[in-house]
Amino acid sequence: MEQQDTRIKIAVQKSGRLTEHSIELLVRCGLSYSKGRDQLICYGENMPVDILLVRDDDIPSLVQENTCDLGIVGINIIEECWLSFKDQGESTLFSQVTPLDYGHCRLSFAVPDEVTYTGPQSLEGMRIATTYPRIVSSYLEAQGINGTIVKFSGAVEIAPSLGKADLICDLVSSGETLRAHNLYEAETILESSAALIRTPIEATSQKAEWIQRLLQRIQGVLQVKESKYIMLHAPKSALEEIRALLPGSEAPTIIPLEGCDDKVAVHAVCKENVFWETLEELKEAGASSMLVIPVEKMLA
Ligand code: ATP
Ligand code: ZN
Question: Domains (ranges, CATH) in the chain?
């Protein structure tokens, strides 16, 4: 039991759109694991961190009640849960919500092709099928619109053709599912991505240290994806201009070039992607011998 309490538990979707990316994120933080026989827990082998594989809808509660220290789930689910907790008078859900760079989608109203949507007023008196009843009703309320919410637990897009609703409010990424059901996206009410959540209950000091370490590594992984290491030669006279062109870089390293008095080598970490256009602008400013290298790990 003592042993158990010192291990960090992270709730991750068992099988779905967020599973692969979430596990990959933890692996990039250095975690190696073995899967339990029941396939419900991945035991960390080199860190005191275990992954609990559960349905995404269960993740906010597991983290809120401190069964898990951390969790990864869509902002759409967090928002729906937050509204439900608020209804129950609960005010602190999580101590931290950090958006991640995958699982992007939007919660949108979608209406049958033959219906014209001219704005929220088109929702007046309509029956709206959704799996996000609280987000949708709070939107309708804010707009002063009366509509009827028809709660679905999945396959919302078939509701209009079944005659169960006039329109739907559902998650969209490419829009293909909507098109296949003769619906079009009319209005977005929430932009979503995966997010990391942390329990509001304070961790024991042993755990807190590893949680902090893991959070720092996750930040590092997120930063690294966009970051590039850039090396170039610059005429001393154009140094200021060239420095200003380097995207998202802190103080670069300036190195003298052997046998070349009017040029220096500039090395910098750019925390934003370096595009061809940037390199072209740098070249125009006088830079030469440019090299852009991906960054593998980063710790501030
Ligand atoms: P579970 O069995 O865990 O309940 P689910 O069917 O509810 O799974 P998925 O369809 O795997 O969930 O989606 C998980 C999350 O992925 C969503 O809550 C959302 O945040 C994100 N997502 C990204 N793009 C889409 C999309 N096009 N449709 C639905 N969800 C998306
Ligand atoms: Zn779900």
Answer: 4-103+194-223 (3.40.190.10), 105-191 (3.40.190.10), 228-294 (3.30.70.120)
